[in-house]
Amino acid sequence: MSTNNFTERQIEIMEAATHRIDKFGIQELTIKNLAADINLSEAALYRHFKSKNEIMLGLLNYFISEMRGRISKIINKKECKASDLLIELFESQLKTFVQKPSIVSVIFSESIFHFNKELSTTVSEMMQMMQKQIEGIVKKGQEDGSISKIVGISTLTIIIMGGMRITVLKWKLSGHQSDLVKDGRKVLDGILKMVEITK
């Protein structure tokens, strides 16, 4: 789904939903509360989304579409070495989280999706998309000899994604007080030092 598939009002509703989840938790995301947040009647809000789940699904698809666009621009830089692509990929993702911190509460809240197959499938697809891109970069590095083969592609990908996830969660729990981009770069640099082959 493209970001162009959403109206300005739908985007406004989805952004208000992420802010409410970030501030009060998923339990406080109701159509009544959301309508009040953006000065709409409940009936008017229902004209844009049929349910709370549809809003959640919409904002996930909106973020995934935006994320796919950013990632493809980075991945298409064929002249860049693998480590530089990984750094650029994660800096792009972390900067987006800093600009839109409330989206982290949505993406990283497994309890929101636990009992909803459509939402959990969408989050899973997003993670798989990121995993596939990282695996592709690691494979490129191992094939050109810039990344050691001592650790397998899938294992190294899990290590990188896990390190980044913990860094983002620490940032969220600190109330966004730490420097997410700087901390993420430190973690990634540490991992790369262990596996990168300098020529």
List strands and helices in order, with pairings:
Blueprint: H1 8-24, H2 31-37, H3 42-46, H4 52-75, H5 82-99, H6 102-107, H7 110-113, H8 117-143, H9 153-173, H10 180-195
Helix pairs in contact: 1-4, 4-5, 4-8, 5-8, 5-10, 8-9, 9-10
- How widely separated are the two ends? 43 Å
| Order of helix and strand elements from N to C terminus | HHHHHHHHHH
What is the number of helices?
10
- The average pLDDT score comes to 89
SSE-based structural type: mainly alpha
What is the approximate shape? Answer: elongated
Q: What radius of gyration results from the CA coordinates?
A: 19 Å
Uncertain segments are none
Q: Provide the β-strand percentage band.
A: under 5%
The percent range for helix content is over 70%
The largest β sheet comes out as:
none
Query: Total strand count, please?
Result: 0
What does this protein look like?
The protein is an all-alpha fold and 199 residues long. It has helices at residues 8-24, 31-37, 42-46, 52-75, 82-99, 102-107, 110-113, 117-143, 153-173, 180-195. Helix 4 (52-75) runs parallel beside helix 8 (117-143) and helix 8 crosses helix 9. It is elongated.
Briefly say what this structure is.
The protein is mainly alpha-helical and 199 residues long. The protein has helices spanning 8-24, 31-37, 42-46, 52-75, 82-99, 102-107, 110-113, 117-143, 153-173, 180-195. It is 73% helix and 0% strand.
Which features would summarize this protein structure in a list?
199 residues; mainly alpha; single chain
